[in-house]
Design goal:
By secondary structure, this protein is of the alpha+beta class. The protein is built from 24 helices and 17 strands. It folds into 3 domains: about 55-140 and about 150-345, 2-Layer Sandwich (Beta-Lactamase), CATH 3.30.450.20; about 400-505, PAS domain (Beta-Lactamase), CATH 3.30.450; about 520-710, Hypothetical protein af1432 (Orthogonal Bundle). Helix 15 packs antiparallel against helix 16 and helix 15 (about 545-555) crosses helix 23.
């Protein structure tokens, strides 16, 4: 036994001795090592293959997210331009004037009226071109027609016979390719033209929408003309191709078009450290493994074995650009060098494979050592260590549960299949079941389908963007209003892939109810103060209400926030509050006012601000009143503020007050027409008033039934 023990102890290191037969002490370890080697080789192969497939899948998802995001932005841009022109075509004034020009154009005694219609349409196109980005400027000095100037775009109105009715200042001539393309569009259809490159490699697009008569059935037979928009799109479209926050070095996103034999890069190709390839690069479709050829053929697809225009290996994802109306056959391609995308993972896979091989070798040696010497003590230590780690993990889990259970908000985690993976006590109480019962359940079964659908969409949005999403939901619960504020935070695993969404939910019903109660109180206060002013100044009765109505409508037309819109309405209602301090005989005076009386009336708005300065509003109501008499060019009072330094709410109040004042009757004059007032506002745009505010006012009056709203007789103040 002693001799055997010595051999067992030292046999691995002593020279082999000739023996008859086989020694199981040597053969069995050899067999084990061979088996471990084969299993290890197979495991290494599978590991490397699975690692590459996993990385490819992750890059497919990552590139797809970028491609989808950029495609949506491009499609939104297309739809926005078509919508701008469609809104212009739906303008009843445009429809009426074009029809009238067509009817009266051949009558010599009607030419003055026809010219007036044309001037109105040209002013309207000027405003629409500035707002929609068709052309550069258009509101400044008129171009010198003795000097050739290339057109950057514009808007044209063409009748059914192909005759130009009106254009914006920088619109291109209606001839050649533009006329041929516009007249090729089927009647009654709105189309988005192809993205074309001119001789300067500048991308240009054409949009065509049909123009129908007033109250037409909008059939092809009823079309009376077309509205055509032309713009250079480099500054608008190409920036949309850049993904915010993208930290890759070699990723590119380009727009492509293709024909039977070639593919064309419609946007420039920019790579760090290299010269920018200009737009218009064309390559043969037959170029071996060309990524652009794959993109235009596949439309929506992904490939990992393609080459770019330089011949370098790339991963490529493509998306067909869709639109309403359908766009030209563009394809958006997002590609990244293979070396950047998978080079690190392949190096890591090789390193891990080597380490795995070494690990297997060490394991094999350890197994032989364990077979020779035993490892009961080590196994026991390992078991103790594992138990300790398990206890630590459980302690951390218990601490997390304790912390979250102490919060008054509902906290829970949903996986990518929208099943509960964690829930605190408050979430459990809200659901009416225990946290253990919630785990593994689908969100529909716990909180109901309506709220579950809302949270599912918010979770998907958070995972797609990688950023937290906040939401406020109003709903009826047992006949009572319930308002829930929720924040949805995406969670990522160690690999960086999405692992679920953490949701923090808080019931803010009491807060919202109190806020709305306060708003109603403030509204009643405003109404009371306005009533007091109207009783003191009979000639300005309902003036404040009309200013508030117009100001609020213009604010919403400009897309301001609800707080800003409410601020303009409140400031409009309180604009004349300071007249309480003016003697009634001055307010009712029909003769000429003295200089002191004029100064008193001018200062009434500042008095209004002084009287309200200690009242708390949600928005800058007091500051809006203080700046309501400032002018765009800096010539106003009290501080001489200029341009954007003036609050947008104050700029809106200034325009609304001017309009209502001009169209309202006064003791010393008759009110003028709305059209006459608008003409004055246009003339003063860029001087006294913000041009954008005036344009929004015109759109409100002509397209939102604003004329009838501000022209109607308001009820007397009770």
């Amino acid at each position: 036994m002693a001799e055997g023990a010595s051999g067992a102890e030292h046999g691995l290191f002593e020279p082999l001795r000739p023996k008859t037969g086989f020694d199981p002490k040597i053969v069995f370890p050899a067999i084990i090592l061979v088996v471990l080697g084969l299993v290890g080789a197979w495991a290494i192969y599978k590991f490397v293959a699975n690692e590459r497939d996993r990385e490819l899948t992750q890059w497919q998802v990552r590139l797809g997210i970028v491609a989808d995001s950029r495609t949506v932005e491009v499609e939104r841009w297309l739809a926005r331009n078509v919508a701008d022109l469609t809104a212009l075509a739906d303008n009843e004034s445009v429809q009426l004037y074009v029809s009238s020009i067509d009817e009266l154009g051949a009558e010599p005694d009607q030419q003055d009226q026809v010219q007036g219609f044309r001037e109105y349409l040209q002013n309207l196109l000027l405003v629409a071109a500035e707002r929609g980005g068709f052309g550069e400027g258009g509101g400044g000095a008129q171009p010198n027609f003795n000097q050739e100037k290339p057109s950057t775009g514009g808007i044209l109105i063409v009748d059914s016979a192909g005759k130009v009715i009106a254009t914006s200042p920088e619109a291109p001539a209606y001839d050649g390719a533009l006329k041929a393309y516009a007249e090729s569009v089927p009647a009654g259809q709105a189309v988005t033209g192809p993205l074309l490159l001119d001789d300067d490699k500048q991308a240009t697009m054409t949009f065509v929408v049909p123009l129908f008569a007033v109250q037409s059935d909008k059939s092809a037979a009823a079309q009376i003309g077309r509205i055509i928009g032309v713009k250079r799109v480099m500054a608008e479209v190409f920036p949309l191709l850049r993904q915010p926050g993208d930290a890759t070095r070699t990723a590119t996103t380009v727009l492509l078009s293709g024909d039977a034999t070639k593919v064309t890069y419609l946007s420039p190709i920019a790579r760090p450290g290299q010269a920018v390839e200009p737009a218009g690069l064309a390559m043969e479709k037959a170029t071996p493994a060309l990524d652009a050829a794959f993109a235009v053929q596949a439309g929506d697809g992904f490939a990992a074995d393609r080459k770019d225009y330089r011949g370098r290996d790339v991963l490529v994802t493509s998306r067909a650009i869709k639109g309403s109306p359908p766009a030209a056959p563009w394809v958006l391609m997002h590609a990244i060098d293979y070396a950047e995308a998978l080079g690190p993972s392949e190096s890591r896979a090789r390193f891990l494979a080597i380490m795995l091989g070494l690990g297997l070798l060490l394991v094999a040696v350890a197994i032989v050592a364990v077979w020779r010497h035993g490892s009961s003590r080590r196994a026991s230590e390992a078991a103790d260590k594992f138990q300790h780690l398990a206890q630590q993990f459980q302690a951390q889990k218990d601490l997390l549960q304790l912390v979250t259970d102490s919060q008054p908000t509902s906290i829970f985690i949903l996986d990518q299949q929208h099943r509960y993976r964690f829930a605190n006590q408050q979430a459990s109480r809200t659901a009416g079941i225990t946290p253990g019962e919630m785990l593994g359940k689908d969100i529909d079964a716990v909180i109901g389908p309506a709220l579950a659908k809302r949270y599912t969409n918010l979770n998907d949005q958070a995972e797609e963007t990688g950023a937290a999403v906040t939401d406020v939901a109003r709903m009826e619960h047992d006949g009572q209003l319930q308002v829930l504020q929720s924040e949805h935070i995406p969670l990522k695993g160690r690999s960086g892939a999405a692992a679920g969404v953490l949701t923090v939910e808080r019931d803010i019903t009491d807060v919202v109810t109190e806020r709305e109660k306060r708003a109603r109180t403030l509204q009643n206060l405003v109404k009371t103060l306005v009533g007091v002013v109207d009783r003191r100044d009979p000639f300005a009765a309902n003036h404040s209400m009309r200013v508030a109505r117009v100001a609020g409508a213009v604010a919403r037309e400009m897309g301001l926030s609800e707080v800003e819109a409410d601020t303009t309405e409140i400031a409009g209602n309180l604009l004349n509050l300071g007249k309480i301090m003016i003697p009634p005989e001055v307010l009712a005076k029909t003769g000429d006012l003295t200089e002191d009386e004029r100064r008193m009336l001018r200062n009434s708005v500042q008095m209004s601000a002084d009287m309200l300065q200690n009242i708390e509003f949600d928005g800058p109501v007091v500051e809006t009143l203080r700046q309501a008499q400032e002018r765009w060019d800096g010539s106003g009072q009290p501080h001489g503020l200029k341009g954007e330094a003036i609050l947008v709410t104050a700029r809106i109040i200034a325009v609304a007050n001017a309009l209502v004042g001009m169209i309202s009757d006064r003791a010393f004059r008759q009110g003028m027409s709305i059209d006459a007032a608008i003409e004055i506002l246009f003339k003063e745009s860029g001087k006294a008033y913000d041009r954008r505010v005036v344009a929004a006012l015109v759109n409100y009056l002509d397209n939102r039934d604003g004329r009838s709203q501000i022209g109607e007789t308001l009820p007397p103040v009770a």
